[in-house]
């Protein structure tokens, strides 16, 4: 029985290791493809005139910053969702504390624990909305999904 358990654990670990290795190989392949694309683009850029090289570099930087901005927006959305969840939990816990304090008023004074002073200040970031929405065409599916949820 113990030997079978150990064999099963070993097989599970081997399977997990193989899956992890496969995922890493795929990741390496994708990175190699990306590197080849970047090398090709770099070689093509070297053959261009200096003015075109500068314009191409600026275009690449704009693309990189746009992608980074989208990633940051996604992170912000996740953090805002988490904030809402934590605010809801805080309300639930504050209600429990109030209920507990109310039940303690029924207990004789000499048995009552010290009263806690719980004040929670949650700051909100005020936003100014103009009534119009500006977005990139490629962000439309994400925008629609967020509007629905």
TrEMBL record:
It comes from Ploceus nigricollis. This is MYO5B protein. Residues 3-103 form a coiled coil. Keywords: Coiled coil. The keyword Coiled coil applies.
